[in-house]
Design goal:
The chain is an alpha/beta fold. It contains 15 helices and 17 strands. Bound molecules: aspartic acid and magnesium ion.
Length: about 475
């Protein structure tokens, strides 16, 4: 098989882990052609973001100290990972040259005293540049041919939307396959840096946090891989958060659309656009654990096996949000009310997670992240209260509970089972939303009620069996 295997930051977080990953790849490469994609080691991307914050705040001392911590960490990991002294020396040279470039960039940004979206993407792409060298040398250390390539080097070309870029797939496909095919036929294992590519002018761009998943599926589509594996520190997509529900199980199979819903709800954080490149060629994805390789994880395909299709496949939760209820008689039959509310909030930079409007049109409820709540309420009070809105009610600390599963579509009685089992726990439901795709039924409860409601639903739909 031709496989693209992506490892997350924790999977390559320590010398011990990197050695295990290299061994895993070496074993699997005996029967398969493998392309690896790697995230930055541990929290490196967070560290780089902190450097950018320090530059913005003109705190040069802090920027320098984070850089030296980051430098030390990588050199130490490299040193403890590689046993062959020649390979270790070659790795040290590579790392030092990359770290020098990073230092130069950082000092340039400090001198200019500014962080532009373009320089930020260049800065935060360094985590992956460092990790792929270490991982690729760890494979060399096992006497197996390997080469490290950044997203730019392998040929991922994107638009110039820094921080949220998208690949230009036709150009990318051509370049990536031209670069990778010869390496694969010569039995090299390419280790590709996730998260970043470059625009048509050669400026480094990133895909947004968690973007290495997206890199993996882009590469898979370009070289027509048979499967993509996302390896991380969880066993797969789970029927519920195992920290909340002891009997939570790995879901064996889900469809792309279900996985997309689950990714958005953060059951396991997957970059939401990761599924796009897989759809047309129907390349299956496996979500697996690096630390429990005997577990086959969750398989994501276009058409999951009938046997695995349950009405509801998982109960997920987004905790600690704010609920805002807006009312007013003048909202009734007045076109543009919703538009005004949403545009005003959008201008203030408030992201809305959930919306519901009563058919009488006299009330609209929204849910926003707790961090956005103050800003949202202030904006509404300043700009809309007393005009289109007569009254606003705010509830702090609510949770969104969402049930996901395509088997809900057209199945009668799901809602009654959902709300019946929640009612038995004497939990009050404050707001409900279901899209007409019926793939996702979401409702809001007080955060203090959420654990018991999730458990009740997990039991009701027998997700632990
Ligand atoms: N290193 C990047 C991040 O932490 C990309 C990734 O891990 O997928 O967001
Ligand atoms: Mg990461």
């Amino acid at each position: 098989m031709r496989l693209v295997i992506k490892f997350g930051g924790t999977s390559v977080g320590t010398p011990k882990h990197i050695k295990a990953v290299a061994k895993f790849i070496q074993i699997n490469s005996k029967k398969n052609q493998i392309v690896m994609v790697c995230s930055a080691i541990g929290d490196t991307t967070d560290d780089l973001l902190e450097i950018s914050d320090s530059i913005k705040k003109e705190n040069r001392v802090k920027a320098d100290s984070i850089l030296s911590k980051l430098t030390k960490k990588h050199l130490q990991i490299a040193n403890e990972t590689i046993s062959n002294s020649v390979i270790r020396k070659s790795l040290d040279q590579k790392l030092e040259s990359i770290l020098n470039e990073l230092k130069g960039l950082m000092h340039g940004m400090i001198l200019l005293g500014e962080v532009t979206p373009q320089s930020l993407d260049y800065l935060i792409s360094f985590g992956e540049r460092l990790s792929i060298e270490i991982v690729s040398h760890a494979i060399l250390d096992l006497k197996t041919k390997s080469v490290a390539l950044t997203g730019k080097e392998v040929g991922i070309v994107t638009d110039s939307n820094f921080g949220q870029s998208k690949p230009l797939m036709d150009t990318t496909r051509l370049r990536v396959s031209t670069n990778l095919e010869p390496l694969l036929s010569k039995k090299f294992i390419p280790v590709i840096g996730g998260f970043a590519g470059a625009d048509q002018h050669g400026h480094v761009t990133t895909f947004g946090r968690g973007g290495s998943d997206y890199t993996a599926t882009i590469i898979a589509s370009c070289i027509r891989a048979d499967e993509v594996w996302l390896m991380s520190d969880v066993d797969g997509l789970m029927s519920a958060d195992p920290k909340m529900v002891k009997t939570a199980k790995v879901i064996p199979e889900v469809s792309y659309v279900e996985a997309m819903e689950m990714a958005l709800f953060g059951a396991k954080q997957i970059h939401p656009r990761s599924f796009e490149p897989l759809l047309s060629k129907k390349i299956p994805m496996r979500i697996r654990s690096t630390f429990n390789v005997n577990n086959t994880g969750t398989l994501v395909t276009a058409n999951p096996d009938e046997k695995t299709n349950k009405t509801v496949k998982c109960v997920s939760v987004i905790r600690h949000n704010g609920l805002i209820d807006m009312r007013g008689g003048s909202m009734v039959g007045a076109p543009g009310t919703a538009a005004t509310i949403f545009t005003t909030l959008a201008k203030a930079g408030v992201n809305i997670m959930m919306i519901s409007q009563s058919p009488s049109e006299s009330s609209i409820s929204i849910v926003v992240k707790k961090n956005d709540l103050d800003k949202a309420v202030n904006t509404i009070e300043m700009e809309l209260l007393g005009k289109i809105i007569k009254k606003i009610d705010v509830t702090t600390d609510v949770s969104i509970i969402a049930l996901i599963g395509s088997g809900m579509r057209g199945t009668i009685g799901v809602a009654s089972r959902v709300f019946g089992s929640v009612a038995k726990r004497k939990t009050n439901v404050m707001m409900i939303a279901q899209g007409s795709s019926e793939l996702n039924l979401a409702f809001v409860v007080k955060d203090s009620d959420c654990a018991s409601a999730v458990q009740a639903l997990h039991d009701e739909f027998r997700l632990g069996n």
